[in-house]
Input
Amino acid sequence: MEFTTQHFIALAPLLITSATIIVVMLAIAWRRNHSQTFLISVAGLNLALLSILPALKVAPLAVTPLLQIDTFACLYMALILVATLACVTLAHAYLGDGGSGYPGNREELYLLILMAAAGGLVLVSAQHLAGLFIGLELLSVPVYGLVAYAFFNKRSLEAGIKYMVLSAAGSAFLLFGMALLYAESGSLSFTGIGQALAATGLPSPIAQLGLGMMLIGLAFKLSLVPFHLWTPDVYEGAPAPVAAFLATASKVAVFAVMVRLFQISPAASSGVLSNVLTIIAIASILFGNLLALTQSNLKRLLGYSSIAHFGYLLIALVASKGLAVEAIGVYLVTYVITSLGAFGVITLMSSPYNGRDADALYEYRGLFWRRPYLTAVLTVMMLSLAGIPLTAGFIGKFYIIATGVESHQWWLVGSLVLGSAIGVFYYLRVMVTLYLIEPNLRRHDAQLHWEQRAGGVMLLAIAVLAFFLGLYPQPLLVLVQQSGLAG
Output
């Protein structure tokens, strides 16, 4: 095919992110400078984010048979880039400058995050199984290094190895499923597969097995039950900014491609597969929330809570009509905002770096009396994750319930209500801990460096945004409505 200017405009976010990766790599080779690497990364990500506006003007446009740049892809590209920007800002505060900072090389962290973000951008615009696999691997491989980045910490290394081994197994399932689908439909493009499956009426056993194996591969990345066993260990072991990236940008990219796959081939969401998805959704909601109840480690608690949140999202995927795509968009935006805020607080509590993250719940006892701003942010994030009215999380949950009711998925709606009720308990437990008064409360506040202040300002902005979207969600709803899969 011939490349025109329009193709380059459509690909601009991906091209700019890739160019940033090369510039950062050359800058590191030339001279190691933590702040310089950070500034180049932020400048590149901001440029990539701005380039989505001209890309929207030429959308929808198929750039090679592998990628489709449409309004749906642009919304999720923006979400991934915003999440990556937030994680890079948190990483800068976390790694710190000067003697109290991180003991190893700090610059490569930005390089790995940018590469994973580029993989996410490929993934959300994939319209072909080859594009899906390239994007997924480009997203996953740098994350293995990111999770084990605190190499002197046994837990971080263990988390990296666990994630790598289990991720390889997930990729094997995904590839096998793709091979079966190709054998059945004779095509690797989503539309081709959709048409081939629709032509035969009900999908054949081979096609259903192929879709089922692909679902296993993707469910692993989304840590849905029963493929969730890696989640709490990896969240706990990974450095806090990396856990934030894993919980937001990485999962958003995988879920977006899953939505595209299921929307384009309606046969995928009918019959046996729909029942399997329903069971996975109910299991993820109940297991995620029940296991979070027993946690005394904030990162593990957020890990289990993310399993439940993607269980809620599956409700809209199973419904897959009416409000579904809109509900998924709204929920993912609100989930990303609240997860970034919650992990951001852990990141700033863990700096300057001292061997392990401040993620044990007892370290947050009476935080209000030491760091009131961080307490305010974490309180808003917990309320939003619980789906309390006047927060962004409430709007997301409301849309998911509306979708479930609209398609008469009563079992799923019932499990969502039950899961949310359990969730309120452990989110409130974290909030109560923040305001306890300790008998011999010691101040151990470190003097904040400018990079931590930048992270703090960003967290306050996230908290304000979570409140604003809870009070006035109209701009978000309009944005998501315009990004339907119709393009």
